[in-house]
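ARCHIVE CARD
CATEGORY: sequence design from structure
SOURCE FIELD: tokenized fold
FIELD CONTENT:
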């Protein structure tokens, strides 16, 4: 059976309705979602209510946890969740609503749920090893990348999901921040394609519906096509975790803190307009 992929906007109400409609109408055997087990459990703990989940996220709590010996990858993932929370409040829907809708709809329709994303701690560990020069470049790039983000935030965000706009955005990110793009997008595209291929191979007659962020749809589709043509599916290299030096961690903590404050200030200014 062919795998159908729905590309969603994590903070768009339109995506939630699209997911619900697709599952209720198509009644897939398997609904694959862009989650790993840790994020699935976190949503499960709040009854797959993204609003309740976001209320649990606090920058102060993240700092206290980190100072108390908590994992930096978990801290970094938490900060990214806070940034998504700000976006969600701006656009009136909570991040993760699309995945929660997919899970709840799958349960209601009797579909099997498959978690296809790479472990978040592996992704965060690999993100922490991105060359520092790239991080510095992001801050000293004359505001080009911030300008792109600003345009996206102040435009009709629904239009971002258009294939042409999305391809332009993803190609620019790939060019401007190649290592970050590789970790957050390309490696995960490959991993999710590998997982979907395995599910399909184990269930050849199953109807599979994959719900992933819109930015992953193109890459996953391309990797699935390559796998079908005999492309190797060994993914061990993108699952490697390596120690990160204390100096790098301290630098990243500082940069994350400053970036979060700047972003928070920016959101506050946008709300006042």
């Amino acid at each position: 059976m062919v795998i159908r992929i729905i590309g969603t906007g994590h903070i768009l109400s339109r995506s939630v309705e699209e997911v619900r409609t697709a599952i209720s109408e198509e009644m897939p055997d398997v609904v694959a979602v862009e989650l790993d087990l840790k994020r699935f459990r976190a949503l499960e703990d709040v009854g797959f209510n993204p609003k309740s989940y976001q209320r649990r996220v606090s920058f102060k709590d993240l700092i206290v946890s980190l100072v108390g010996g908590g994992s930096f990858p978990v801290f970094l993932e938490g900060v990214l969740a806070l940034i998504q929370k700000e976006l969600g409040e701006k656009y009136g829907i909570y991040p993760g609503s699309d995945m929660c809708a997919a899970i709840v709809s799958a349960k209601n329709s009797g579909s099997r749920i498959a978690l296809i994303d790479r472990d978040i701690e592996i992704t965060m560990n690999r993100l922490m090893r991105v060359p520092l020069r790239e991080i510095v470049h992001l801050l000293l790039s004359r505001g080009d990348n911030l300008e792109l983000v600003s345009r996206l935030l102040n435009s009709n965000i629904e239009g971002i999901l258009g294939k042409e706009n999305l391809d332009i955005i993803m190609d620019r990110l790939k060019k401007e921040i190649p290592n970050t793009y590789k970790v957050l997008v390309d490696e995960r595209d490959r991993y999710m394609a590998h997982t979907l291929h395995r599910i399909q191979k184990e269930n050849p007659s199953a109807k599979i519906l994959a719900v992933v962020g819109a930015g992953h749809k193109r890459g996953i589709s391309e990797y699935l096509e390559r796998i079908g043509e005999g492309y190797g599916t060994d993914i061990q290299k993108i699952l490697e975790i390596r120690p990160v030096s204390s100096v790098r961690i301290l630098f990243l903590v500082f940069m994350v803190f400053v970036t979060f404050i700047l972003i928070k200030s920016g959101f506050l200014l946008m709300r006042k307009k």
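CARD ANNOTATION: The chain is about 65% helix and 5% strand. The longest strand covers residues 3-8.
SHELF: design records, drawer C
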